[in-house]
Amino acid sequence: MHSILEKYTNDTFGKDANESFYDLSSAEQELIFDEINRYATSDPEKFKREVKTLEFEAMSPLCLIYEALAGDPENWGNFLADEVDRLFSAAKTHPKPKDVLDNLTELCFNLETGNFPHIQRLVKFMGSQLDDQKPVIRFEAINLLSHFLDDENHKKHPAVVSKLVETLSNDPNWRVRFMAKITLRDINSLPEGYQTGFWDKIRAKIFSPFSI
């Protein structure tokens, strides 16, 4: 592949190529986002094909590309929502599913307050992942879901909220239950009188509940 995306394969930026992207100034970051967006809009179909050839490795530029496109949801909303679906599907058969889904973190974070036309689609999709057999898929779905559910938006998705309540009570993985609790608490939807189980409290004190 010969495109500008190749130079973002390694997180080496700055004058001497010795800085991480997130060490750059906001102005420098915006210049990179602008370059990506110009390249993407110059030939959208070619760009989409190139994105789908990128590996899911730790230094993948996918995270950076998604963050750049998140600033233009009107033009890239469908593509970004499709990419969320694609990465979850890939994660289910990948030997390191978390590495795949970590590419979505900045995308979801930057869409949290953006004018994104497919928020409702993403909420429903991530809610559907709560039945997956792999704990890491359920955990990451709730983690990403928490970016889209707020005091108002959750009222549009009673089925997803109900599924989170069910997960809180019945999921066999304590970290998944913990994430469900945090998400429900943040939207004031914890069941009345809910108390974290004794052993879950102990586990959360000894082990990190925020990764799986």
Count the E strands: 0
What does the oligomeric state look like here? single chain
Biggest β-sheet strands, sense, barrel: none
SSE order in H/E notation?
HHHHHHHHHHH
Unreliable stretches, pLDDT < 50, 5 or more residues? none
What general form does the structure show?
elongated
Structure description:
The protein is mainly alpha-helical. The protein is 57% helix and 0% strand. The mean pLDDT is 86.
Short description:
The protein has 212 residues and is mostly helical. It contains eleven helices and no strands.
What's the topology here?
Blueprint (H helix, E strand, L loop, with lengths): L25 H17 L1 H8 L10 H8 L3 H19 L5 H5 L3 H7 L7 H10 L6 H11 L12 H13 L3 H13 L11 H9 L6
Keyword list:
single chain; mainly alpha; 11 helices; 212 residues
